[in-house]
Amino acid sequence: MIKPLNVLFLCTHNAARSIMAEAVLNHLGGHRFRAYSAGTQARADHRPHPLTLEVLRAASVSTDGLRSKSWTEFSAADAPAMDLVVTVCDMAAGESCPVWPGHPATAHWSYPDPSKAAGDVEQQREAFRQTLHALHQRLELLVQLPLSGVDRLVLQSEARRLGQKTP
């Protein structure tokens, strides 16, 4: 059996987009992927945004074990070695990232922050649904890639190509 590709999704607070990406890739990726998420400034209470959890559950995606984490957890020597690190918000993409053990492939996939959506609760919920849908589409493409035996540069190229597509 081939070891799964470890993918880390980064965002500023690790409360919405990166948490969604972690949950969806673990849902879609089967034994081929193991997803994680973290933030540059993780939430102090370690709780994902409530609407993040709500829309994931409504989509039948497990929310077990999801929590807001700092990216320092994944830059430590005993952290799982990542094969791919993807920023999913523009603020995190612009920050100086730690040096990741193993020097993984990197990519940036830009999504608006659904937690900043204006309007009533239903309009905010819809922003979270739209973000989840866009992430789901892109992650479906990722899991369909023929990744067995690819090297870091090919993985990086493919992940960055996916970031150029409009989901």
Q: By helix and strand content, what is the structural category? A: alpha/beta
What spatial order of strands do you see in the largest sheet?
2-1-3-4
Which regions are unreliable across 5 or more consecutive residues at pLDDT < 50?
none
Give the overall shape.
globular
β content, as a range? 5-15%
CATH-defined superfamily? Response regulator
Terminal-residue CA separation:
31 Å
Main sheet? 4 strands, parallel
Q: Which second-level CATH architecture applies? A: 3-Layer(aba) Sandwich
Q: Regarding CATH, which class?
A: Alpha Beta
Any idea what the radius of gyration is? 15 Å
The averaged pLDDT comes out at 88
Order of helices and strands: EHEHHEHEHH
Number of strands: 4
- What is the number of domains? 1
CATH fold node name: Rossmann fold
Q: Could you estimate the helical fraction of the residues in percent? A: 25-40%
Features:
167 residues; alpha/beta; globular; Rossmann fold; single chain
Explain this structure to me?
By secondary structure, this protein is of the alpha/beta class. It has one domain: 3-Layer(aba) Sandwich (Rossmann fold). It has 6 helices and 4 strands. Strand 1, helix 1 and strand 2 form a beta-alpha-beta unit. Helix 1 packs across helix 5 and helix 2 packs across helix 5. The radius of gyration is 15 Å and the shape is globular.
